[in-house]
Amino acid sequence: MNRYIQVGDNTNITEERQKATFDTEVLGSIIYEGQERLNRRREIAKYVEEHQDLHDPKPRAFMTRLEAIENASRKIIALKKHAEQAINASDPSENYLFQSFVMGGEGHPIALHDLLTAPVLLANCDDEQLDLWLPKALNYELNATYAQTELGHGTNLKDLETTATYDTKTEEFILNSPTITSLKWWPGNLGKSCDHVVLQAQLYIHGKCYGAHLFWVQIRDLNTHKPLPGITVGDIGPKFGMNTNDNGFLKFDHVKIPRRHMMMKHAQVDPDGTYHAPIHAKLGYSSMLYLRSILLGLFAMNLAQSAAVAIRYSVIRRQGEIVPGEGEVKILDYQTQQHRLLPQLARAFAFLATGKFIREMCFKVMQDIRSGEVGLLADLHAISCGLKATCSFQMALGIEQCRMACGGHGYSLASGLPQLYSLAVGGCTYEGENMVMLLQLARYLMKVANDVRNGGPKEEPSEIVQYYFRPAKSTTCLIDQAYDTNHQYVLDTFEHASKRATLAAYDKLQGLKQKGLSNEQAWNETAVELCKASRAHCRTFIARMFVEQVQQIADLPVKNVMNDLLELYLFYEITEAATTLMEDGYMRGQQLRFARHKVYSLLEKIRPNAVSLVDSFDFTDRQLESVLGRRDGHVYENLLAWAQSSPLNKDDIDCIYSFFTNDLGNFMLIFYRYQYSL
Amino acid sequence: MNRYIQVGDNTNITEERQKATFDTEVLGSIIYEGQERLNRRREIAKYVEEHQDLHDPKPRAFMTRLEAIENASRKIIALKKHAEQAINASDPSENYLFQSFVMGGEGHPIALHDLLTAPVLLANCDDEQLDLWLPKALNYELNATYAQTELGHGTNLKDLETTATYDTKTEEFILNSPTITSLKWWPGNLGKSCDHVVLQAQLYIHGKCYGAHLFWVQIRDLNTHKPLPGITVGDIGPKFGMNTNDNGFLKFDHVKIPRRHMMMKHAQVDPDGTYHAPIHAKLGYSSMLYLRSILLGLFAMNLAQSAAVAIRYSVIRRQGEIVPGEGEVKILDYQTQQHRLLPQLARAFAFLATGKFIREMCFKVMQDIRSGEVGLLADLHAISCGLKATCSFQMALGIEQCRMACGGHGYSLASGLPQLYSLAVGGCTYEGENMVMLLQLARYLMKVANDVRNGGPKEEPSEIVQYYFRPAKSTTCLIDQAYDTNHQYVLDTFEHASKRATLAAYDKLQGLKQKGLSNEQAWNETAVELCKASRAHCRTFIARMFVEQVQQIADLPVKNVMNDLLELYLFYEITEAATTLMEDGYMRGQQLRFARHKVYSLLEKIRPNAVSLVDSFDFTDRQLESVLGRRDGHVYENLLAWAQSSPLNKDDIDCIYSFFTNDLGNFMLIFYRYQYSL
């Protein structure tokens, strides 16, 4: 039963909803982890809907960047005013939800402050420092961001160039940007909004470098908002997406700050310059982990959102005939359209299950750390790096497939999909560039492979990589006509593929070293193969997460349709991984053809439930920001209304003619002028 | 010898250029089809460089849509004034070049008029009509566009809903838009600029529909530029790219036009309503063909442009160490970076060779048509559809790979790559949506397959598909250590793969029909496999074009480096096509590993020439519009200059504080206001 049918909807979409073989409410409560959360989601959405000051006055596609920033500033103030009434403000997930409903994903002037300042202060300041700075941060008496990356340097702390040189005479640090490449570059909200930064800089004492440390630095006057002396700061300019975030640059010209503005929870510098090293290194680890686990859920939702838009539009749009004389068909009836869209939806569910598992594992690891255990930390770090890269890239490809599947209208900003893509694809780059992330996982996998090649694990391996040490269940692939429903054969197949890829990379690496290459050279010459191994391991992991999630579903109709999506996911991935599987004869052509056949028949089987599946995500029209993806299916009349309200039509621009003559003859050309500039 | 070295350049890029093993000038003259053309290209670029009224006053990334349109209007007028002096105005290729240097690819108010009006009038009007309308069009006394697609309908003429109903009493056509989906939607420059349209509408006489015909319709008053009575017209709103083009919508409410405003070269309607059918159908065919052949060259250039930006930046950017203690390396030294970028460059060259062949074939076919031969028309139509889809998609993926390979800076509009992508990816959708295009080629291939399965061709097959009828040279793949340099083994391999894919799709299609499915149903259930067959055939075709082009190169050093790129292209494609090749045992794992090994060693071999290869495209900095891709390599200081000149920094926006209190405590939030609005 589809709960999203309303009177007055486009009948093309209503008839789709009537075909649902399951209750969208049951699936919705699985997606949002409980009926209670789904209900709260709706209540918060309703609250937003009822308060006009939380809305955009016009589609954001029609705003200039400055208008959009001004609008975001206005809304975030309104949001803070409404928070007490709208949500349980002490619940982070309700805060997140409320903020995402109102603000979207493009950023606002206190986005980084809200996200990072308090956790970073708590993790790095001693008690005295906390007493001084934390209340002001929490009360919004200041607006801070985290300044790490530089114009010429990414996330590698070792390579940062900004210096903080301790002067024992004045008991101050002198902050300096010695080169053009040392300018801080990219920190969110740094450009125009922030007045403080948490600064990563190389600590120098008596001419010796102690590596990157954190400092608390005021950069603007709190009254005039002007940069303080010695500081140059500004916005880095427009980007592909996130343009309501004023990512900024920052240059220090010998700026002095007191000694106690170094964050001293872990490392300390005494007045005389004596340095006390931190006891534990890399304590920021777990918060990066947590951020990555959140990202997986975000990627899943981005992909689901694009699938929702494209699938809904594909039952409104009609084109061409399949049965002659029966009129134009819905484009979702085309196999090619199903093949473009439904695997994206399946992947969204797979990423969601994976993100949930990682998030929960992350909580567990953080608890373990508190009780002194760090056993799972390295495992979780490695897999979360690989998953971030794998899922963000598949998400980006998937959103574009959804967009292109909407034809010309997908190219219009009215579809919402170009904006969704250019925002979401940032996920391939931020929080660790994808190639770097894959190689991080590969480094961990090479340790596993070393154990495999050298007589087994030294200690009980983490659950995530146990399969590397299990004897192969079969040396040939068992997928065929006799395929049964427990999916174990497919999981075995993926495990085989990632074992192969991992060991092949390991053997190549060892071979190159034996030829006399250094570790680093051998690593570089194996890098493409190493990335392949990481992707294969991630595929195996995601597949297992999805299988386990579907197995836990109690409601039979939902379990059935989710099982269809799961099978589509698995067989689609098999066709994608086919090369690795056939390379060693594990899979044969006949089995590949069976997998393809399964994909095609699953597409047909899922198709009647497609709209109900995306409905279950309970996206509001305000969230989707898409004329094509409207719940009510009234696409065409609203495309016209959207166009008619766009700036070129609204602002009543006059076109005046400019006649002139040159040697070629008479030219008549049109010259635009805005009315106000005439 | 690299001719692009200049004193004062970033030494990181100069040392790359010094490694060139070939003369960039020789390769440049191959790319631009002759030294004379390369020289003219430079002269025109120099002319543009010397005339400030042909420049943008600021980077287009900093303009609002309205500013950009106004700027484009200004520039196109300046360009027309300069044309006589700057170029040989009667040479279409010089016009194209001049226009692309000055205007870029985002469009301007007479873009469609320049491109289409004259050819469409010439192809469809009788002499009397031509005498009336053509001179005015050529003299820019009017500005017209071509109005075909509708809100609910793509390129399929049969489904258009706009009607032109002949009224014998008044001897007029009544133009009408009967439904919301019948609104004309997308025509370029229709929104605000044009005053005339070439209209596709269903012709009705005495209640009978005669199908889509072309009409010449004035839509705006030539003095006031206001829409004429019964006409609603406007801009369709902002898009992913092409935002200086005012794509528009158009609605007719029973608008009357004289009988003689139907274009009457082919079909005629007499005053009494007697209809005379055209003798030849589909006469617009060859101009669509020509447009697609131009597009292939454009796709090649887009891809080369993104490769130029990313490869140049990759020798400026340093990150991480490979040999410990030797300092950070250029990121192009990483195998993963080479593997991302160099295959894109190889594909750009492959597309260029293919586009050139298709363009020449197109000229030949058009000549043939004039002398009554239409033999090659269907072949050329089919392959050009498939190539458009294959090349546009690979281009889009490739541009994004180049963009992501630039890390965070690739996400900034300063890189030029987001804008290049959002413009270029339109090529996957316009001029025939890619899936539709692949299926057009598949329809042709199924005829070929039918001949193969039924005793050979009925007549001498076109050169393009002859390989389908040749006996297989081998039943196993011959690529291995003994690989020689004539590439025939690889071409055989591709031919094998596309034969297999084509015949597999054909057999599936026949099988489904024998099971009782209608032609259309069977076609739909085979559609994904049909697309695969089309792609495989295109790969075969492109590979052959590239092989033949490289074989023709006389200059040995250029031939050597191009041969490296060709091999990279071929082996990269083999790894991509591996599944199809292994499915039937044609290729074995050992051979696949050989192909991969070849790819890695070719990456290493090409790397020293990478910068010189992209230099040979002779892109000007003005063309690239990319701080990362600057010829002189001075990236970082210019990123800062770019950022500092961006609107948020330039317009001296004040940030004022807005203090307010709510139950949570004191909030301090920043509120933006533009200076002028205070």
UniProtKB/TrEMBL annotation, chains A, B:
Active site location: E431
Keyword Transcription belongs to the record: no
Record-annotated Acyl-coenzyme A oxidase N-terminal domain positions: 23-142
Keywords: ATP-binding, FAD, Fatty acid metabolism, Flavoprotein, Lipid metabolism, Nucleotide-binding, Oxidoreductase, Peroxisome
One Pfam family in the UniProt entry: Acyl-CoA_ox_N
Source superkingdom: Eukaryota
CC cofactor: FAD
Stored SUPFAM superfamilies: Acyl-CoA dehydrogenase C-terminal domain-like, Acyl-CoA dehydrogenase NM domain-like
This protein's record includes keyword DNA-binding: no
Compartments, as annotated in UniProt: Peroxisome
Cellular component GO terms held in the UniProt record: peroxisome
GO BP field: fatty acid beta-oxidation using acyl-CoA oxidase; lipid homeostasis
Pathway(s) served: Lipid metabolism; peroxisomal fatty acid beta-oxidation
Domain Acyl-CoA oxidase C-alpha1: 285-446
Family annotation (InterPro entries): ACOX_C_alpha1 (IPR055060), Acyl-CoA_ox_N (IPR029320), Acyl-CoA_Oxase/DH_mid-dom_sf (IPR046373), Acyl-CoA_oxidase (IPR012258), Acyl-CoA_oxidase_C (IPR002655), AcylCo_DH-like_C (IPR036250), AcylCoA_DH/ox_N_sf (IPR037069), AcylCoA_DH/oxidase_NM_dom_sf (IPR009100)
Binding of FAD, residues: T149, G188
Domain Acyl-CoA oxidase C-terminal intervals: 487-652
GO molecular function, one term: fatty acid binding
Homology family: Belongs to the acyl-CoA oxidase family.
Protein name: Acyl-coenzyme A oxidase
Organism this protein belongs to: Acrobeloides nanus
